[in-house]
Design brief:
Radius of gyration: 18 Å
Order of helices and strands: HHHEE
Structural class: mainly alpha
Oligomer: single chain
CATH architecture of the domain at 3-61: Orthogonal Bundle
Distance between the termini: 36 Å
Helix content: 55-70%
Number of helices: 3
CATH topology of the domain at 3-61: DNA Binding (I), subunit A
Shape: flat
CATH class of the domain at 3-61: Mainly Alpha
Number of strands: 2
Mean pLDDT: 87
Low-confidence stretches: 80-88
CATH superfamily of the domain at 3-61: High mobility group box domain
Length: 88
């Protein structure tokens, strides 16, 4: 998922939710995704520029950051996240 789309989705989420009360989050995401696909190249370029600026800003603030997705494993039939906060 591109930074441009993430910013676009964040910006439009509340409006789409208000226009479609009762829709689930996956349904809202589909609506926003369809809107994104219908944008012109010029409109997407604006969001791409914002996404590039956000990436640059994030890199400056967190130069050592590396994305490390969490792995889901199963223990005794229960879902368990290996990076969960379990200090008990």
């Amino acid at each position: 998922m591109s930074a441009a789309f993430i910013l676009y989705r964040q910006h439009h989420h509340a409006v789409v939710v208000a226009e479609h009360p009762g829709k689930t989050n996956p349904e809202i995401s589909k609506i926003i995704g369809e809107q994104w696909r219908q944008l012109s190249g010029d409109e997407k370029a604006v969001w791409q520029k914002l996404g590039d600026e956000e990436k640059k800003s994030h890199l400056e603030r967190f130069p050592d950051y590396r994305y490390q997705p969490r792995r889901n494993t199963k223990r005794n039939g229960n879902d368990f996240q290996s990076n969960s906060h379990s200090n008990s």
